[in-house]
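Pipeline run #58 for the internal structure catalog. This entry was flagged by the ingest filter as a single-chain record with no existing model, so it goes straight to prediction. Upstream metadata was stripped on purpose; only the residue string is passed forward. Reviewer on rotation: M.T. Logging verbosity set to normal.
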Amino acid sequence: MQEHQGTTTKADIIQMACDKTKISKQQVTEVIELFFETLKKNLERGKNIKISSFGNFVLRKKRPRPGRNPQTGKYIEITARQVLTFRPSPLFKDQVNK
């Protein structure tokens, strides 16, 4: 597995799954791609994602608010938008903090 400055990539996840399951790389890639595509499509539809023992991906609506351009100092309005947040489960938090 290749180290990416402390970052695990999708390719790393695919390789780890191949090594652990002995399933072909092509099959693992298809499953991983389908998994991420399913997450994205559900989030695009406004659905939150809950993965037991891992955490929740939650869409939050942010209201428009005043802001400032740091280069010019000019005040602008930051438009309303949705943001995606991740809230780890207590079990996952405990595992990470061991």
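catalog note: The chain has two domains: 1-46, 48-98.
catalog note: Residues 89 and 95 are 10 Å apart (CA to CA).
status: ready for reviewer M.T.
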